[in-house]
Each structure stands twice: as C-alpha cells, then as structure tokens.
Amino acid sequence: MQNPEPTREEVNALTGATVLEFGASWCGYCKAAQSTINSELANFPNIRHIKIEDGKGRRLGRSFQVKLWPTLIFMKDGVELKRLVREIDAGELKSGLALISAHQAGG
After folding, report:
1. In degrees rounded to 5, what are phi and psi of residue 66?
2. For the chain, which end, N or C, has fewer CB atoms within 10 Å of the first or last residue's CB respectively?
C-alpha cells in the first residue's frame, strides 16, 4: 500500500531542511537520477527526504507547479529555496543540499 501524499499545508509546516522528490516509478529520468540522489543525500543525514509519486490529479505536485520529473525541491522550514528539474547534476544537487543544510544552524 502506498503512503498517503502529504498536503501542501503539511509540507509548509515542516521544520528544518527537507528535499521533496517528485517523480514516477516508471520514469526513465527518475530511475537514472536515483544513484546520484541517494549518494549525495547520504552525505547530509540531517536533511529529510520525501519521495512523492507524482502524476495527473496529484494535488501536491500541482501546487508546486511540477511539470517534469524528477523535480527536487529544496526547502527550509516550509519555504522553497531552490529546485532542480529533470537532468539531476551531482554538483547542483550537492549545492542545493549544502544550501539548506547550512541554514540548519543559523536559522
């Protein structure tokens, strides 16, 4: 059974650093990005990672205006600071993770 998708209100209420990963299990771009995403996230254990199966009629993806997969949204205390779309570059991913991680200590 699939976990229920969080609401936009629940996502906006999250504290700390969060990466939302929108995609689909059958998406080739999503599959190709998984090793890069997983290896970079392993270096930032303090960052919450939420994978969201996206598609037609999925409200959370629409509320973030997700159009291509994968889309990674880097958030701090419910506020989007950066996003990566489709071609996930390891350097850009690391930069986004460092951005939200750096905000952990200082607030």
Report:
1. -75, 130
2. N
Residue 104 CB neighbour total at 10 angstroms: 13
Measure the CA–CA gap between 21 and 79, rounded to whole angstroms: 15
Q: What is the 8-class DSSP label of residue 2?
A: P
pLDDT, mean of residues 5-22 = 96
Cα angle value 36/40/42 (rounded, 5°): 120
Domains, the chain, with CATH or none: 15-106 (3.40.30.10)
For 37-86, what is each residue's pLDDT tens digit? 999 999 999 999 999 999 988 999 999 999 999 999 999 999 999 999 99
Order of strands across the sheet that contains 17-23: 48-53, 17-23, 71-76, 79-85
